[in-house]
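request received
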Amino acid sequence: MAHDPMAEIRASFFVECEELLESLQDALSAMANQLEGESARDGETVNMAFRAVHSIKGGAGAFGLTALVAFAHRFETVMDELRCGRLVIDHEAMKLFFQAADMLADHVRLARDDATGAPAGSEEMLLAIEALMGERAAEPEAEEVEFAPMGLTLDLELDPPAPGGDPSGGTGPAGRNWPGPAGHNWPSPAGHNWTVSLRPTDALYACGNEPFHLLRALAELGRASVTCDVSDLPDLDGLMPESSYLHWIVHLTGEIDESDICGVFDFVDDVADITVTETVAAAEALSDVAPPPEPMAQAAPTPAAAPAAPMATDPAPVIDLTAAAAPAQPAAHPAAQPAAPAAPAEAAAATVRVDLHRIDRLVNLVGELVINQAMLAQSAAEAGLPPHSAVMNGLEAFMMLTRDIQDSVMMIRAQPVKPLFQRMARIVREASAAVGKEVRLRSEGEGTEVDKTVIERLADPLTHMIRNAVDHGLETPETRRAAGKPGEGTITLSAQHRSGRVVIEVADDGAGIDRPRVRDIAIRKGLIAPDAALSDAEIDTLLFLPGFSTASQISALSGRGVGMDVVKQAIGGLGGRIAITSERGFGTRFSISLPLTLAVLDGMVVRVAGETLVIPLSSIVETAALSAESIRSLGPETSVVHIRGSFVPLFDLGAELGYRGPRASYEGGIVLLTAQEDGSRAALVVDDILEQRQVVIKGLQHSYGDIPGIAAATILGDGRIALILDPGDLVESATGRTRSADTPLALAG
Amino acid sequence: MTETRSQSRSQSSAEVELLSFRLAEQEFSVDIMSVREIRGWTRATPLPHSPPFMRGVINLRGTVLPVIDLASRLGMPAVAGDARNVIIVVHAAGQSVGLLVDAVSDILALPRAELQPPPDLAADSAHGYVQALTIVDGRMIRVLDLSAVLPPCHTEVA
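response:
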């Protein structure tokens, strides 16, 4: 096989890009929430977004993806303004940032597909976000005074200082040093003097960084004089070889931009204390603004702009900035501290990318291991070994280990639905812009884990449903306001585990289904008879009929001839079900219930007519022994059982699954009371309950079509295959409620 | 349990290798290239609401493998299902399926020219499944058309 290491690295760059884009989305969403006042403001989120764009730019540069680099660079510049607090965003600006992030994703995709050039609208997008900076420049006065331009701790945790200005005082003179209307560029009249203090922590060395490289990079920026401070160095007996004792002071002179200096420390900002101080001659006038917290004056080489780390005339080469930095940091950036704990959380999210086939192979191998172990245990028992012999004890431990391995392996394939939901957020943005509606997407349960394949195959139907919700579900802002609702519509996307299935819901707070109109259209299109008497729920399900479209005006967005029938078909193909509820004036809710294919399931292993079956534990409410007096016959073939004051329909599993004829008597059977997603209950009769255990779900649909009542299969400890029951489907097919309508769609999947 | 050497390529298009097996006292065969392995008989877990020839599913090293009672599929009395029977695991038309047969007999290598199309007169249901006929040592061997034998995806089980 041809092996191109470059292609491999490139491929992994694009995988990384996906992750970075995801974290960019995360950060932007968090910022939007902060903007709405839903969560506390946190400077770290801006930094997260900035870092994501920056890393994409860096990687793209390495591969010579010029269009991507160009876009990322300009996006990053705007982001940097935001990060440094020089740009304050509002609702509209937030939208632009989201769109720019989408555009960045488009750029990445283009680059991945080896296409050159930029996606359509890229330049306009850039101009639009860059205009944000222009706005700021137009009204510089108001914001300038809010910033402390001195003693800037270049720790990326830095937060835009709260409005109200720098508590350490000196707003007037501090404002002076701020750039003028030029905005994002520092004025560089005659070059700057910078004092950079670098104090690495142990962690810097632990992760393989080398201060020498950083110092060399600084030296490349301009004329630099470097001093090493060894005052912290302990005696030899006190010296810990892996601790950091040294720190460096670098004086830089030249046409240097602050961001260039920041750039040097991009990758070590969380493992070193870095202080960048600008020392401009003009700042001398400030010398009387704030007295130094301690007599450091001798130390500072030139007059510093920072009132907290002030100036002196004695240009002593060695300054101890630690003392200065310590008081300056909390003073200048009161909000910086709470953000600090965010860093370890990021480190915890480390992942490894593994080929899916390898995982599947592992899953199968572990399944084999479990079976083998069961066989071994059986042969040991047959060989007459005493139960407490060393061999049997060892086998016992072996069994526990295999179970643990099995559990862990099963968890690998399941993935959170978050990336899918993020894609939907983009769909909402694009769709709402296309139809001119204000829409906000709220997502819940992003951490819910679903099998990877299910996630992939859900994308299309979900996209369609979201578009529908934006286009048909929500009203125009004017209509909404007239109805007393906020102009901005809300679409809620949620995921959760319920009765052994994953339930994904798309809900809007729009006008709800206009049932008389749906009915009229169905009659007009000949889908139903004009005199058909339909319940509300039945009218709602008309939406799933092929060729149905309620939008009287076919918009660019939906109504392309694919309707909810396609969605239903796709969901059916995944072994799922879709239901719709709607209240006039309050909105519509679609809920998709999906099996957790290939996930782990807690099941009750039961025996019915000699066959072993697994019933999802989550759907079982109660088990009880049957007694003759609790059973009431209801017609010739159906019975109900009286449990806890209510009558519950009784289903004999042996007969329902065709293993045997109907039982003459239910005496002696065991009944499992199950609850469906809609809250209805059913009692299933089994012969025996064997055990409770976790089972591996193996899909069945793939090659044998849909078997009513059976969700999947699993392999038990003895190597036999047991079928996993889907009580909801079994009851539905037994009662014939929806079976006839469902069959063709289920088979088409 | 014998793993066939699936990577061994048939020497030339002029020669064909067949795996022959017995089914209700008749000899059938399949192209050896479609055979993945041969397994001893194991009890299959029956699938509810499936056609009679669908014997059920078995565990093939962690995957769920459907097993077809070939005799019953061809309209003959069902295979008894005991330790003497074997399951031939074949892969055809994009799916793997186990075929339950009475016993495996031989591997035959013969020139393709010796395969004859079946005469177009048989009225029994096995007719559509036979691709070709050949004579080896005076015994007539039927070459099965696997794609006709396997249940079509998704639509068969209803």
